[in-house]
Amino acid sequence: MLGNFTYYNPTKLYFGTQSMNGLNEELPKYGKNVLLVYGGGSIKKNGVYERIIKILQSNGKTVYEDGGVMPNPTTDKLREGIERARAARVDLILAVGGGSVCDYAKAVSVSVNCADDPWEKYFIRFEEPDCAIVPVGCVLTMVGTGSEMNGGSVITNREQNLKIGHVFGAEAFPKFSVLDPEITFTIPKYQMVSGIYDIMSHILEQYFSGTDDNTSDYVMEGLLRSLIHSAEIAVENPRDYEARSNLMWIATWALNTFVEKGKTTDWEVHMLGQAVAAYTDATHGMTLAAVSMPYYRRVLPYGLKKFARYAVNVWNVDPNGKTDEQTAREGLDRMEAWMKKIGLVMNLTDLGATPAMLDGIVKSTFVMEGGYKVLTTEEIREILRESY
Ligand code: NZQ
Ligand code: ZN
Prior knowledge:
single chain; 388 residues; Rossmann fold; Dehydroquinate synthase-like, alpha domain; 11% strand; binds 5,6-dihydroxy-NADP; binds zinc ion
């Protein structure tokens, strides 16, 4: 049954091939100094950088740049970005990139006017911002995380081997996001597929919790069916606009706080994946793919009815003449076959994890309580061992 909740999402979206024009509507709302944040250079190769510089100039902005944000952005880079933003006295942070760039921009935005160390304050003590937040806008170039319409910010501390996410409140969401599916055509296939599984994982982390009759679960089944369908088309033809635009829209809705309403939500797959990335720096969606099957097969008995429902409603398993357990397991088998078909990495060894890292990864894995089974340390170790 749905409990009490507040639903509010302040991010304005501009979607489609003309969506970049939305910047001309948004930019006049902010002061002159804009910090343009981007990644390792893909936007310079595909022409996005030039287009944005032109739009910023025609809106009379003074542009300061902060490039080189790496996938899995680090505390060192974050501290550098905060200094740049302070020196530029920025009025707006414009993030142009994928989840890493958007997450990083949010982390800078809540830290510019704050004296505390950002890692300690937000990612260890999980405090909320108590200083003025610099507004963030986002031009999304990579699909998967949902960072374009949420308060999530995931930062990696290499010295401490920790990758931790802080979900900030509505005041730290991007004020606007530009979603042009054509910009995603240049994403390498490895990243595209990783993003597709990130979307699937976000939905499943929210779907596999609770036993009540909840509208969100029906919505998520629809999103999953559309995701599976569009992913297969995009893998065959990455320039299929219809498929790529659907993927972009599903990713946003998978993690913009809508489908979590009334649910406890799990997120254990993400905790395992983040611990793996803390040691390997592997691509986010791939870390999730590598641990998912051992995890789901282990927790299946504790959420049997839901796993059987998932098999029938998402993977078209015929339940006739089968026990719930058989139906549920067949669903996971189909999911696994699909994951292999679209080209996901299915084990940690291929992501650079060595046996010597196992103890550390176990230690870096947070235990969540909202799913069907609260894992023991030994269970975490076994799931990870099975994922190698
Ligand atoms: O750095 P550049 O050169 O731009 O290249 C990037 C990067 O190498 C490339 N890329 C992006 N758009 C492209 C492109 N290449 C060609 N054409 C384009 N249009 O793709 C690579 C990966 O980019 P990244 O931003 O790292 O990918 P993603 O969007 O998957 O973001 C991953 C980060 O987001 C966090 C992850 O943990 C990870 O740190 N997450 C954020 C969440 C949130 N905010 O709610 C939730 C997620 O679960 C996730 O944890
Ligand atoms: Zn994710």
